[in-house]
Amino acid sequence: MTYSLRRLVRESLRGNTGWAPVWREPEPKRHYDVVIIGGGGHGLATAHYLAKLHGIGRVAVLEKGWIGSGNAGRNTTIIRSNYLLPGNERFYEHSMQLWEGLEQDLNYNCMVSQRGVLNLFTSDADRDAAARRGNAMILHGVAAELLDAEQVRRMVPGLAFEGARYPIKGGLLQRRGGTARHDAVVWGYARAADRRGVDIVQNCEVTGFRISNGRVMGVETTRGFIGADRVGMAVAGNTSRVAAMAGIHLPIESHVLQAFVSEAIKPVLDTVVTFGAGHFYISQSDHGGLVFGGDIDGYNSYAQRGGLPIVEDVMEHCLAMFPRFGRVRVLRSWGGVMDMSMDGSPIIDRTPVEGLYLNAGWCYGGFKATPASGWCFAHLLATDRTHPLHAAMRLDRFETGAVLDEAGTGARPNLH
To answer: Are residues 216 and 247 in the same domain?
Structure first.
């Protein structure tokens, strides 16, 4: 079923009786060419590109809960490609380009809004760092603008400029960045993959791997054994637990990342803004709610909820930037389980087990990476070759010392 204006008018005239389910609910087959563990954005995007670009239709996506129940539905929806290091910048720019054509590719309204991403700086050192990042982006063909304080004031007049503890000196702007609707992205990829024959199996938890002579033969699940020629892991914060079932110990930790949304208010913020003096980011949704977040909680956890100290920290940063939001009520909050790598950058690579592949370590960058992550992971699963776009995201970089320390904090996941 293709969505179009003609179809919308037709269904409205017949009482919307012709709409079909967005994807099937198939029973798992006994064997697949590829099994992908994890029904979030990355897993579903991988399945879509495997079928679309590589012609591999015998694919299953196994999700222990329901589609969108994990991190895909627990983030602040920001998309951008304003990275510094070559190993990340090329990758995230490819993701940005895929975002720009995603709705046409999936025939689904993912509500991609290129409203811009503005990174504020509040000191001379921050300005130098922003200029360096902007220059690196431009060298890779990605547009970036360094704004002074007056330009920022005209763009976001609600910021605290006078008497602020952290005086705003300017910002780095990527106009092509913005937001996308997280659940719509997951549903769009699920629908597109299903249309190409991919089996999306919900409520199917992987409980172990069947490995013979160093090669994966398939996965044990709550719905029985499912054989596969190749298996890909894309399970976000549960990566350590799933990999341990195959005897693999990974250089990542699981942390909680909280996010918040306020009551709906009139439009006051038409771009994404991040705070250079701390770690805070905010945008306003189409419903009017302010969507914002900050740091991880800083302790290892698999809980989809966080602690009050980070709540206080996030609110302090919000009011330091926007004092006018002090009387806005927070409507709800949630927590996603992040797999934090030792250098703040992701891993897309083979594992020591033949036929078993890894997509993990996304830290704060998982949602914005969704299209490129699926694109690159599909290439790896289909060809068993590393694509240049993710060549620096190797698992063995922690042994060789070729780390991608994007945040510049070293091997301290709690600081990323």
So the answer is: yes
